[in-house]
Request: fold
Amino acid sequence: QVQLKESGGGLVQTGGSLRLSCAASERTFRTRVIGWFRQGSGKERKFVAAISWSGAIAYDEEYAKGRFTISRDHAKSTVHLQMNSLKPEDTAVYYCAATKFGTPSSPSLYDSWGQGTQVTVSS
Reply:
């Protein structure tokens, strides 16, 4: 069973930064694409970024590109999401998820999900 665990969320002021982490088993880390999604209160879950084992990366062009950076730590079987220049509208629960496919943006193509980590950006 694929298990994912997010960490690194918290409260930050506008313009601040946070680094989220998604820890996975070594097998999952080597065989799956890992993606990050966000879900604001009462809103649908939306794609942020994804990274494959080989380093192929996809970002949501409108939301994440230019502010967020996704990366893999192979030694720790962890995927990070560095978030800079945070805005109040970035406030959401952030989830990591695993998929066997490329770097898809649709949540329905991901078959395993973590519990999520809350990010709150104050104005």
Remarks:
- The mean pLDDT is 94.
- The two ends are 40 Å apart (CA to CA).
